Amino acid sequence: MIEFIEALAAPHNHFMRLAFTAALAASVACGVMGSYVVSRRITYLAGGIAHCVLGGVGAAGYLRAVHGLSWLEPLHGALAAGLAAALLLGMVSLHAGEREDTLISALWVLGMSVGVLFIYATPGYSVDPMSYLFGNILMLSGRDVWLIVGLDALVLLVAAAFYRQLMAICFDPEFARIRGLHVNFYYLLLLCLTALTVVSLMSVVGIVLVIALLALPAASASRFSGTLWHMMVLSVLLCALFTTGGLALSYSTNLPSGATIVALAGAIYLLLVVGSQVRSRLAG
Amino acid sequence: MSMLDNCLIHLDDVYFSYDDVPVLQGADLCVGRRDFVSVVGPNGGGKTTLLKLILGLLTPQKGTIRVIGRPPEQARGEVGYVPQSFEYDPRFPVRVRDVVLMGRLHQARPFMPYSAEDREAATEALEQVELTELESRPLASLSGGQRQRVLVARALATRPQIMLLDEPTAHLDPAAEHDLFELLSRLNDELTIIVASHDISFVSRFVNKVACVRQTIAVHPTDSVKGELFADLYGQAVDLVRHDRQYPGGHNHD
Q1: Please, which residues have CB within 8 angstroms of residue A37's CB and are 6 or more apart in sequence?
Q2: Which of A198, B161, B175, B188 is least surrounded by CB atoms within 10 angstroms?
Q3: Chain A interface includes B219 (CB < 8 A)
Q4: Tens of pLDDT, residues B66-93
């Protein structure tokens, strides 16, 4: 731990400080959006959106290389695919009824496969899909960090503006509809914000880690929270703890940072679940 | 047509089916002001469908529905709704008072806090269901009966003329069930109440009409001799509901 702090302070370790800042900034968006995603029980849907993003990344790279669209970056493709997936999966979940999970699975694997096929077909575009799955938090630019800070601002603005509306559609969408709320609009807004969170964090920490950071801190926080607001604050703090703790752990053990962060978050969540089971057994 | 003017809720020859499964076929219903109606019938027989039609969440394929003289979607502001208890997540992190304030959602504006009027309506609703002292507790920490009363308070906070409750006692023990109906009886002094219920013998002590739903709707009064047995829709003997005489606004089986 001490060597990690020393590494942060070292003048030549600019990448380490960027990674640390990005981890803290990412925690804000992940904690707030994660609280909505977990309490609305759509972590699976968020996972579907995240994997569809890979299709957009692959397609953008292919178009850029084959059709000479030099202005087109992977981020543009990711953004388009993420928002399209959010709207498509949202419509599916609103209208498909009991087939919802099957359709989401289909779009999940389809988006991902399309991405891999595009990457394979792109001449001279030798990107390892693994780097999108787990990311590389140690290879960030200042622009990446500003992108996350911008996302934080947007997420906090929307969450503050529509706190009660979003809470109501997560708690009881049918009642919210009867009270005159445009439930479908807020639901799709929630999914689009989730997509933006996934896209901004994908280049940083990877698709798998984004899902983990959306679900695990919020799920852990929900065990100690009386209100959605508390859950958000606690999720942000837990998320910051998991990411910076995982980063320090990976530095001192020389393990891949993304996977270490996910493993730490997952282990603590499972410990909490098992711990509360044991406690209620003992109490009962 | 003078009788129709007395109907706060009026269904006229309503047909509704899910895909190819007919649920209501030529259903008529008239609920008057301050009626306390229990909707009974077999599971899947159309009780919830009837409530959702009155709320305008479903649209009939044929026939008309009027609520306070308006199409159902336009009358929602006057209708308080209590859904079946298992349709929401009891672990959701939310305090009792915040749930009740959801009854004021139609007033919610971006960034703006709830108004003094909204907060007053919530306080009043909590007093009516006698949960004032629990208002800061997380919903998850309440008993099933208390949670059900929170949902009643949420519906009351909209200051409705009509209350619709869908199987409110399905997961309650007999004591909590009794308390809930005592509460509804008191509310009935001012409100028109419709309760979907599978427990016909219990509710008929409190309600003044029983509406039997099985594709059509038959309305029966409950001011009959207690303990008398009559054949009901299920083909079994069920007490306390008369099926043997004409009643204004209703009709007989067979």
Answers
A1: A43, A45, A46, A190, A194, A214, A215, A218
A2: B175
A3: no
A4: 999 999 999 998 999 998 866 667 778 9
Task: State how far the Cα of A229 lies from the Cα of A35, in Å rounded to an integer.
Answer: 9
State if pTM tops 0.90. Answer: no
Domains (ranges, CATH) in chain A?
Answer: 2-276 (1.10.3470.10)
3-state secondary structure chain B: CHHHHCEEEEEEEEEEEECCEEEEEEEEEEEECCCEEEEECCCCCCHHHHHHHHHCCCCCCEEEEEECCECHHHHHHHEEEECCHHHCCCCCCCEHHHHHHHHHHHHCCCCCCCCHHHHHHHHHHHHHCCCHHHCCCEHHHCCHHHHHHHHHHHHHCCCCCEEEEECCCCCCCHHHHHHHHHHHHHHCCCCEEEEECCCHHHHCCCCCEEEEEEEEEEEEECCCCCCCEEECCCCCEEECCCCCCCCCCCCCCC
- Taking contacts as CB-CB distances below 8 angstroms, the residues of chain A near B102 are 164, 168, 171-172, 175-176, 179
Q: Chain B closest CA to A178's CA: distance in Å?
A: 6
Tokens representing B19?
């895909």
Within 10 Å of residue A70's Cβ, how many Cβ atoms?
8
Q: Per-residue pLDDT tens for B227-249?
A: 333 444 444 434 444 444 444 44
Summarised one tens digit per residue, pLDDT across range B116-161 is: 999 999 999 999 999 999 999 999 889 888 998 999 999 999 999 9
Q: Is B138 on the interface with A (CB under 8 A)?
A: yes
CB contact under 8 A, A160 and B111: yes
Residue with the larger pLDDT of the pair B209 and A129: B209
CATH of domain B2-91+160-239: 3.40.50.300
Q: Which residue of B has its CA nearest to A169?
A: B102
Q: At what angle do helices A14-39 and A163-171 cross, to 10 degrees?
A: 50
pLDDT confidence of residue B238: 43
